[in-house]
Amino acid sequence: MSGGTATVENPVEKKLREEAKRLLADKKVDVIVGYEAGTLPLTATPCFITAPEEADKLVWNPCCTQNLAKFVHDLLSQHHEAQKRVKPEAKRKKTVGVVARGCTTRSLIIHLQEKQYGRDEVVILGVPCGGYVDNRKLAALAGGEEIREGAIDGSEVVVKTAKGNRKAPLGELLADCCLTCRFNEPVLADVETGKGTPVAAADKEYEPVGAFENLPAEERWAYFEREMAKCIRCTACRNVCPSCYCRICFADQSQPRWVDIGENASDTQLFQLMRMYHMVGRCVDCGSCTAVCPMGVDLRKFLKKLDKDARDLFGHRAGVSLEEPAPLGTYKETDKEEFIFNPGGGGH
Amino acid sequence: MTEGQSAKEWEPKIVAIVCNWCTYAGADLAGISRIQYPPNVRIVRVPCTGRINPFYILKALQEGADGVLVSGCHPGECHYLTGNLAARRKFAALKSFLSYIGVEGDRTLFTWVSASEGDRFAQVVRGVTEAVRKLGPAKKLVKKLPVAQPA
Ligand code: SF4
Ligand code: SF4
Q: Considering only CB atoms, which chain A residues are within 8 Å of B145?
């Protein structure tokens, strides 16, 4: 076996390849962003397909991790930028096809909502999703050994290492965000490839946040401090996040220099606080940031709070409606304001 | 608080970011009317609370403010009509997030003071100063630079 994942072509994959072939042959899209088998066992990497005959490379399995909406934004914003320097008669439209699970479609909706590109510039190949394998949980299964071969057989994951075979139910290896996900099907799709199975624990979504909220403030601060101390500010979490698409990020700005370069703990805390704060009602809990973080920072503990607040304070859920703007991009006269400081009462 | 200063001498240092049209005018009125209020606030005037990047608040905390007060026009009275309504959402989310990570709620306070409320401005500043005094010097998010050792 040459890396990747030993799985037989599943019906979704089959349909996906057919549809991708058709879209490319009919010139409905210029490129399709999807997943192909990775070079290591039990991995899949993003790939870009431009010819119908390449479509058979596409895979769809629980090793497909990253939220591909990021690439759609990258490709289209670069294209828009390049078109600015082209004579009007030579201007060209680019259409990007994308393999999208529930969270990816939510990110696409956020992009569309924020007018990053037009609906006609993207073709969404929706795929049903039952969750993806968390790379850390997988490494734990392998006991830190190198995974030489791996296979997902139905609902069981088997890895082969120098110290023998190990297996675990797929459910135990899924990423945390997948365990309570309610978006097992695309929210928006042009092409459908199958039906998803709902995960039962969707109602437990905010339990970890609730538990954290109940801790004493000093413990919460200590946890925040400890997690942030792990961060080496590689900015991988930002680079992978589909909602982090500013051309110049505050973290890279030098005028003003919002966060100093260097190792100061407070600068790292501010970098993280601010990046996360930009996610109010814009984080789709795809887990891409936690998956790429080389230091295993528990970003989700904080991001999920912002998600909960977007719901509690503004009644908003990220990326489910093309009409509803991100909560901090709008307001209501009736917004809650219990937090307003009012010494002596009255005032108004 | 600089090193070596005793807790007794400590006075809260509060950054007040206020809008030009209401709260700044309110502060002016407090001055003109000779209403006394604690000298602990350093006022930063901005056109509108809607113009405040939440990062300003975090930066103030990072660079040594013991508390940050943000004040603008009452909802419905914004000079730019809705700047304060947009700001209200940003601050609600920021305040909630800060307290989630364990930063004391009273380090960041938000309120509305109109141009005619000189007395309210003084009352707010008294309230904020007292609240921050109770908390003591800020320790969280504060940037500590390596102290040069005397040769
Ligand atoms: S912050 Fe993380 S989980 Fe949220 S949308 Fe961005 S990459 Fe996904
Ligand atoms: S990916 Fe991890 S280590 Fe890198 S900047 Fe983000 S939180 Fe820090």
A: 264
Q: How far is A3 from chain B (nearest CA, A)?
A: 42
Q: What is the pLDDT of residue B3?
A: 52
Peptide bond before residue A256 is cis, with ω within 30 degrees of 0:
yes
Assigned token pair, A173: 């290896």
Q: Is residue B144, in this structure, part of any structural domain at all?
A: no
3-state secondary structure of A150: strand
Chain A residue numbers touching B75 (CB-CB < 8 A): 333, 337
Mean pLDDT on B30-40: 94
Rg (C-alpha) for chain A, rounded Å, is 22
Least distant ligand from the CA of A66: 1
Instruction: Give the residue, A155 or A83, on which the prediction is more confident.
Output: A83
How many angstroms separate the alpha carbon of residue A298 from the centre of ligand 2? 10
- Tokens found for residue A111: 């992009």
- The CATH code of the domain that includes B120 is 3.40.50
CA distances from A43 to A33, A112, A132, A143, A185 (A): 16, 30, 10, 17, 22
Residue A177 to residue A205: CA distance in whole angstroms? 8
Mean pLDDT value across residues B9-14? 93
The arithmetic mean of pLDDT across residues A115-131, rounded, is 95
Q: Give the residue numbers spanning the domain of B92.
A: 14-133
Classify residue A111 by burial, with Cβ atoms within 10 Å: 0-12, 13-18, 19+.
buried
DSSP-derived secondary structure letter, B25: H
Give residue B2's pLDDT: 52
**Residue A108 beta carbon below 6 angstroms from any ligand 2 atom:** no
Q: Does any CB of chain B come closer than 8 Å to the CB of residue A249?
A: no
Average of per-residue pLDDT values in chain B: 91
A345 inside 8 A of chain B by CB: no
Q: Which residues lie below 8 Å from residue A279, measured CB to CB, with a gap of 6+?
A: A241, A243, A303, A306, A307
What's the ipTM?
0.90
Residue B148 maps to a domain: no
Determine if the pTM surpasses 0.90.
Answer: yes
Q: How many independent structural domains does chain B possess? A: 1
pLDDT at A346 over 60: no
